[in-house]
Amino acid sequence: MSSVSRSLDRVEATFDDETLVADAGLVLPATLMVRLGLEALVDDMVRLVDRVGGARPGRKVLTLIASILVGGSHIDHADRLRAGATQKVLPFRVMAPSTLGTFLRAFTFGHVRQLDRVIGETIRRAWSLGAGPGEAAMTIDVDSTICEVHGHGKQGAAFGYTKVLGYHPLVATSAETGEVLHARLRKGSSQRGTKRFAEELIARVRRAGAA
Fold first, then answer.
1. Tens digits of per-residue pLDDT, 46-79?
2. Torsion of Cα atoms, 182 then 163 then 156 then 183, to 10°
3. Does residue 112 form part of some domain?
4. Which tens digit of pLDDT belongs to each residue from 3-42?
5. What total number of domains does the chain contain?
6. Same domain as 158, residue 99
């Protein structure tokens, strides 16, 4: 995959049987992972020094991303990436669910901010390849959303005006493309932190190349 993807610009997947599993759906994300150098980027920016499960964070983060892309909602769903020939499509070694659990439990808020830096650099790299707005006008939508959770042991979850138990992150997206540019999880449904969020957002898109 890593050798092919450098010259792969267009892919078309055709299925003649509605019962087939579309593992080919990971070809484009896998190609993008290689083009943007994501595994090495995460390894360089996310440092879980002396923490159990902290080694090789790049392949663990990409395993979680790929699992989410194919519909995974639980850590155990990462095992789907080991089915069939899926591993041949992905440019990284798929990690076991138990390994991913250990990895995530090693995280502190500081490590979350390290991942946030990874996202900013990923956007910059993608935009430098032509995906960004460049000199064109850009409209950014900023709003809160609700991510429903179940169980009262979820740290930071709270009830908002909708009476739904969940997280209440701020999210910024490009109005033109729907691309998520920035997100910040807040405590409960508090409105605090909006000014800082906007400052971080504007700085991020400017660093990424938006005029």
1. 998 888 888 999 999 999 999 999 888 889 999 9
2. 0
3. no
4. 544 566 677 767 677 666 555 678 889 999 999 999 999 9
5. 2
6. no
Task: Measure the CA–CA gap between 168 and 110, rounded to whole angstroms.
Answer: 20
Q: What is the DSSP string of 162-191?
A: T--EEE--EEEEETTT--EEEEE--STT--
Length of the chain: 211
Domain that holds residue 204: 134-208
18 with 99, same domain: the answer is yes
Q: Residue 118 falls within a domain, yes or no?
A: no
Are both 94 and 142 inside the same structural domain?
no
13, 30, 166 from 27: Cα distances, Å: 9, 5, 33
For the beta carbon of residue 64, count every other beta carbon within 10 angstroms: 18
Within a 10 A sphere around the Cβ of 104, how many other Cβ atoms?
A: 14
**Contacts of 180 by beta carbon, 8 Å cutoff, 6+ apart:** 171, 172, 173
Own/partner pairs, 75-83, CB within 8 angstroms, 24+ separation: 75/100, 75/101, 75/104, 83/21, 83/23
